[in-house]
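Retro notes, item 3 of 5
We never archived the inputs for the iron/sulfur cluster complex last cycle. Fixing that now. Sequence and ligand:
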Amino acid sequence: MIGSSTPPIRGIIESSLTHWDGRIVAVVFVGGCNLRCGGCPSPHLIGDGCDQGEIPLDSVLDAIYRRRRWIDGVVIKGGEPLLKPEVLELLELLRDFGLEIRIDTNGTCPEALSEVIRRDLVDFVSMEVKAPLTGQYHRVAGTTVDLGAIFDSIGILLSGEVDYEFRTVVYDGQLTSDDVMAIARTIKGARRYVLRAVKDKGPSRTVLRGLARSAGRHVAGCHVDGRPQDRETPFALFADGDERMNA
Ligand code: SF4
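Structure as it came back at the time:
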């Protein structure tokens, strides 16, 4: 039995076309998160309770290994995957399969982020910047956030040692266009910034495009994520045997 010290794996999608642009990937959901965002798409993943169950690491690795010739990579997301130091072992095991690895992070763990980059365990990092780095961040994240850690993670990615993107989910009533511009100024010079609205809870695609044009003054490329109504949301198998849609 491998992986006595790997992080709790709560779900897996064996192949997805929507979690990494242009790639077919497996998606691994790591349980536990240090934030409590109101619009969290994965509230069943953020608690640390053992009643959520875990998918044995052997099964996850076996499923990915069997598909390694038909997928391009693996996306590790949560929850917040960098919260558990054991994620390093998981990344090392996946690296041995010769697959590209992307990690999705909320940016609160800059030391772990530095470490996975230093050890060349990831090919791409997608970091969500939830709000301007003011008191507003705590409100959007649903808890007090170490804003210094968010600044540090932004700086690590801007240094360009690994390919990356920043992204922001825009909800009506939570972020204004001025807020999005403030975020764009904070990540000034970034290679890629992605704006996304959640279906029925965010601005129209036209409004989002206008925001992207304005934010584009500060970053090399600002994109609007796929139409929410067109976005395929594959079902993931979770440790409790349930299947749920995941963003
Ligand atoms: S950081 Fe992500 S997983 Fe954690 S609570 Fe916020 S939206 Fe949910």
